[in-house]
Amino acid sequence: MPLSSPDYFRYFATGPELRTWGLALTAAGYTRVPAGSPYPPGRHPADHHFDWKHGRLLEALQIVLISDGRGWFESHPTGRRIVEAGTAFAVVPKTWHRYRPDPATGWTESWIEVQGPTAEHLLRSGMFSAAAAVRPAEPEAGLDEALESVHTRARLAGPGFDPELSAAAFSVLAAWDKAGRIQPARSRVLRAIGEAERHLADRLSEPVNVQALAKRLGIGYSHFRRAFKVHTGFAPWQYVLHLRVSRARRLLAASDVTLDELAARLGFSSAFHLSNAFKRVHGVSPDHWRRQLARAGGSRGA
């Protein structure tokens, strides 16, 4: 989690606005627990403080993300579970639980607590099941970013109800739900495709070796090609061609670059091949498109 601000935890009062808005952030915190440190590291309110021996029960819903280190989470429905970096768990109201970092590693925890009719409805719907309280927080779910948004505001917020904090907290709940719907294997492929897109976009003028790229990303060539097309709408080589033609169009509109210069800059073997690719996409040659653009500009300036 890319937070550089100091550790903190805060508790917020609720009022009549809770029923109006449906959800309130009642607590939030971010803590780096070094290896060998006592846990919990700070003194929380009496109804929230706990130790490993006794555990606790809460009246509110909490979402906790472990971004570094490892440790354990335990409840009656889940039993004891190992929790590693990139894992999140939900503390479901009125469910006995306990958790702590491994003394050998410590951990970094980021968490929020919410209450209100919306939280109660989501609990009744089964979105936060005590039996499925631990899940991987795949990056695509955005849970770390949603939590960071809460922390940025919570550190400076007043002690009372804040609708914007509630909205930020709702994003955390949505990210938790999304994390439960992402399959880890699929997530790995999506991350590889995202990396491939960046790789290809950064090297438009270079020859494309899709097999070598798939191997570098640790995915079989055929699987990579199929997944890439499903995700982007293009086969890898078509994707590169699409990017090159799009870049050519922008440069033609913004400069007096020649087709020969443009072809060399964008990895086309010649101005002829650039012109053919441009015409297949836009229906006209680059020169014709540039003249049309010049005429349109002249008409607007008349």
Could you describe the 3D structure shown?
There is one protein chain. The protein has 302 residues and is α+β, with helices and mostly antiparallel strands. It has 2 domains: 8-182, Sandwich (Jelly Rolls), CATH 2.60.120.280; 187-302, Homeodomain-like (Arc Repressor Mutant, subunit A, Orthogonal Bundle). Helix content is 46%, strand content 19%. It contains 11 helices and 8 strands. The protein has helices at 17-21, 117-125, 143-154, 163-181, 184-202, 210-217, 221-232, 236-254, 259-266, 271-282, 286-301; strands spanning 8-11, 24-33, 61-75, 79-84, 87-91, 97-101, 107-115, 134-136. Strands 1, 2, 3, 4, 5, 6, 7 and 8 form an 8-stranded antiparallel sheet that branches. It is elongated and about 75 Å long. The chain starts with 7 loop residues before the first strand and ends with a helix.
- Rounded to an integer in angstroms, the radius of gyration calculated over CA atoms is 26 Å
- Count of domains: 2
Q: Helical segment tally?
A: 11
The named CATH superfamily of the largest domain: Regulatory protein AraC
**Multimerization status:** single chain
Q: The biggest beta sheet, please?
A: 8 strands, antiparallel
How far is the first residue's CA from the last residue's CA?
54 Å
Structural class: alpha+beta
Helix content: 40-55%
* Average of per-residue pLDDT values: 89
Can you tell me the overall shape?
elongated
Instruction: Say what the CATH topology of the largest domain is.
Output: Jelly Rolls
CATH architecture of the largest domain: Sandwich
The CATH class of the largest domain turns out to be Mainly Beta
Number of strands: 8
